[in-house]
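fyi for ur records
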Amino acid sequence: MKTQFLVATVLLAAAGASVQDRAFKPDKQIVFKQFENDPLELNLFLPEGWSANDKRPAIVFFFGGGWTGGTPAQLYPHSRYFSSRGMVAISAQYRTKNSHGTSPFECIADGKSAIRWVRQHAAELGIDPNRLAAGGGSAGGHVAATTGVLKGLDEKGEDMSISSVPNAMVLFNPVIDTTKKGYGAEKLGDRVTDASPVHHVRSGLPPTIIFHGTADTTVPFENVERFEAAMKNAGNRCELVPFEGRAHGFFNYSRSRISYATTIWHADRFLASLGYLKGQPTVGRPGEPTW
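which gave:
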């Protein structure tokens, strides 16, 4: 009897995983940057009824992993949700220490390249180049933030007449201070402030929403509080949504479906306020997820 129950449980789990894999599989993959025989890809999630002639809003997500590892699949659930809401959603690959032996500065350059490439090819992708958001979690949140905040650090040889600055930012427990007060100082040598978004805040930056756990010991909550204050003092829109008692990575679909749904709900309302989305979210209100 126990054996039959175990087999049934495994089969159900496998069936659930299969459905999830299909739901979160990208609709299209496109190479946006080439390093010898090692291409970097954009994983596209296209909305129902999509056409290359559309001018849809879009969001480019960057995965976390401390600039050392990680995979674009981390943000596939987020990408599929926003594609279901009518956006072109993209989970981007970028170089990491494990994959290419690189530093955080190459991660930044790849993030900027991804935003620039999507904007440059907007007409082919059915995207409105003036409604292009950047998002990401942890180190990927850092990459997204640097595309909107930092000047320079672009890949050499790219067309600088095409902006790599997104029109909005959606950040999940992002690395926002790369000095000893935050995360990653040991990986940046004597250039700790060069890659630190909180040290480069000025007026005219993209509207931003941040989700962060108050118990995050990897990226201190104080960092995003300071960033929010600096953004508002500079006249920028910045919304910080705190998650009481939550640790780093709480927003991931694989970690907590409720936290995932709650952050998605708030991100949906933020993007709707910018004219990127219409209608109501298809996840429940915070604390009342529907799946």
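The mean pLDDT is 90. thats all i got for now
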